[in-house]
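Project standup — Tuesday

K.O.: blocked on the structure for the chain from last sprint. Re-posting the sequence here as requested.
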Amino acid sequence: MTATRKTLTPADLAPFARALGHTLNGVTRIQGGSKKGVYRLAFRDRSTAVAYVWSPDEDLWDAGPGDPRDPFSHASGLTLFTAAANRLTTAGVRAPRLLHADPTHTHLAADVAIVEDLPGGTLEDLLSGDSGAVAETDALERMAALLDTLHACTGPRFGKVALVDNGGSSYGGSCEAVVVERALSDLDELPARDPRAAAAHPRLADAIRMLAARVRPRNEPPTLIHGELGPDHVRVTPDGDLALIDIEGLMYFDAEWEHVFLHQRFGRHYDTLRTEGLDEDRLSLYRLATHLSLVAGPLRLLDVGDFHDPEFMRGIAEHHLGEALSFLRNAF
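H.V.: unblocked you, prediction finished:
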């Protein structure tokens, strides 16, 4: 199990402030990330920036380097971040601007990026607060426009942006084939963890294969998607602009994968983000696969990590196991 995270100190991060021409006044860890450390750097001139630190000490998954040819492999590291940031820039979608990068581990034994600090909260904060109907509507309409821009971009092959944009190809013959393989793998982890999953395992495996058999081959190029796009991964600036964060998982894939996640995370607000032309068979397959992923993933994290709110993770796993079993009862 990964040891408790050791928070970096001002002395650890001061060289990065100097690289930007600043003097560091203070450092605050920003809570939330499970794959990297995120720190707000306060400078003497009262400006700020954010440090992303990718190191084994900061990665609660204890997963090691991911295989870039697997679209769903561990999305962590400076290479994935810079490739995603560059692709979003060319797509016209805002993300935190890269101010400084240290791939050579000059000051820390880790990949480090210093990015602009986007003041204001997340879209999740706005939607769950007392901002009012007008502010919510405006933010959701901006979010819908951002999605239109993002999903209008396509790639030559499915897979992580860092791989595909450098001419590489992913494992698997299609998006749906990769999802099926991953869903069956996630499912196979569950019987040892929960008797309900053990009892339902054969029917859930059959359901995955039956749903996959309904999916027709697709000839259109894959869509540029964030991959885990909840309202917590969208920053809202004081002028109402939106920027995507936690972008390392950016990839070319089916838009249905993104919309299943959007539907789950935005809940009652999803109608504004809904789009026409999605494949209902892919949505059904991806919905069940996502439920299984959100059971296996949180339980895996609790096994190996030091997540700051384990009950929250257990709640996610419990909710999605219930959803998978309910899906089984209602659809089959």
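K.O.: great, moving the ticket to review. The chain has two domains: 10-116, 123-331. The CA atoms of residues 194 and 239 lie 47 Å apart.
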